[in-house]
Amino acid sequence: MAGSLRNTLHAPSLMSLGRRKVFWLFFSIGIATCNHSGSAADPPRGYSIPLIDLASDTSRQVIVDREPGQYLGHPTTVLLEDQKTMICVYPKGHGRGAIVMKRSTDGGKSWSERLPTPESWASSKETPTIHRVIDASGKKRLIIFSGLFPIRMTVSEDDGASWSELKPIGDFGGIVAMGSVERLQNGDYIALFHDDGRYIRSNATAHKPPLFHVYKTTSKDGGLTWSQPEVIAHLPKVHLCEPGLIRSPDGKQIAVLLRENSRTRNSFVIFSNDEAQTWTEPRELPGSLTGDRHVGKYGSDGRLFISFRDMTHDSPTRGDWVAWVGAYEDIVQGREGQYRVRMMDNHKGSDCAYPGVELLPDGIFVCTTYGHWTPNEPAYIVSVRLKLSELDQQAKQK
Q1: How far apart are CA 306 and CA 322, in angstroms?
Q2: What is the mean pLDDT of residues 64-75?
Q3: Handedness of CA 312, 313, 317, 318 (dihedral sign)
Q4: CA distances from residue 20 to 17, 26, 33, 315, 376 in whole angstroms, order as listed
Q5: Which residues pair with 260 in a beta bridge?
Q6: What are the DSSP E strand ranges found in 105-148?
Q7: What are the φ/ψ torsions at residue 21 (nearest 5 degrees)?
Q8: How many domains does the chain have?
Q9: Does residue 79 lie in a domain region?
Q10: How far apart are CA 267 and CA 293, in angstroms?
Q11: What's the CATH number where 342 sits?
Q12: Which residues are within 8 A (CB) of 107 and not within 5 positions of it... i.e. 6 or more apart?
């Protein structure tokens, strides 16, 4: 069984960021302060909100899976209705690689050995994503998508005890399929993904420069079948991708946070006020929310906790696993939010943080992702456990 990392604790401090990152912290604060009054069209490339560092607090960390000499990456998680059973899936490799599955029955405190999986899971070509769906009759399913061409799906109707083989959902492909799945008010589901022109069709060819489009596809039968994809976001001069969907607190609006892969601008956001039928033009986000693969959940007090890979242009934690805490209205109004958190220190470039985020009944967020957490070692899967009240206490000291 995987267990907690039990190393000597060190109080989080600025110096724990390292000299290079401390320099960038003060540099980015200066940049953000100078530009804080800038227009929405040209938001700051850094941020001025407090930064809390949890990277050295190993008491919060639980190893989900680690294998000597083997890269393990890109996990997603799902929390079942008993509010303690979690399933985590991830590839044995960087995106491409056999899908591995583990289960926790105690809210992520410990994890099973690797579970048996269908033979076709070994053929997965890209990041797997797991989601809970429920059809109109109340039938519950778990579905896992595997991307590139064609996008394939595997289904479980017994909470992950058994699974179907991976099968195509249509004659289309895509990347990080499906990063977000959301139930609409009419009971349909939408699933969001992106493509850069190479995989959307069987005869697709690479564009130079790449043309990124964000797509939605719809299911009317509880996730069993999916419609042809429709474009919901595109800007010709930047590369919008990896959609992370968050509903407004009243459920009436949908926001989708987007990675910007040309690395020339901040991340972007689009909104829908009509259940994903139409979308606003992409709008640049503040530096504090700039990153890759945003996954968010609301805490019990209504604040948002959003986990992502930090790709903020001016940031002491660029390339690390970070999180943002703030209000949904901060996203709507283009505000920086309340504070940021460095979850863990990634030791190899920016290769980390395709996160799963789950909220337990006691207010604990269980945040799970991959990264190079040990210098000169392959990536492995770790969870970090936290409460917003604990972060608030640290934020007061900043």
Answers
A1: 9
A2: 98
A3: positive
A4: 8, 10, 20, 10, 19
A5: 240
A6: 129-134, 140-146
A7: -75, -30
A8: 1
A9: yes
A10: 10
A11: 2.120.10.10
A12: 83, 84, 86, 360, 364, 366
Token pair, residue 54, equals: 């949890």
Residue 191 lies in a domain: yes
* Rounded Cα distance, 149 and 282, in Å: 26
Distance CA 96, CA 387 (A): 33
Tell how many helices (H) and how many strands (E) occur in the chain. 3, 24
**Residue-wise burial string across 223-259, b where 16 or more C-beta atoms lie within 10 A, e elsewhere:** beebeebeebbbbeebbbbbbbbbeeeeeebbbbbbb
Name the token pair of 63. 């190893």
pLDDT, tens digit, 9 for 90 and up, residues 168-201:
999 999 999 999 999 999 999 999 999 999 999 9
Q: In the predicted model, what is the mean pLDDT of residues 46-56?
A: 97
Which residue carries 């490339």 as its tokens? 45
Domain that holds residue 27: 14-396
* 387 Cβ neighbours under 8 A, 6+ residues apart: 363, 364, 365
Q: Which helix (H) or strand (E) holds 25?
A: helix 19-35
Q: Is residue 158 a part of any domain in this protein?
A: yes
Q: How does pLDDT run across 12-24, given as a tens digit for each residue?
A: 344 445 544 444 4
385 assigned to some structural domain: yes
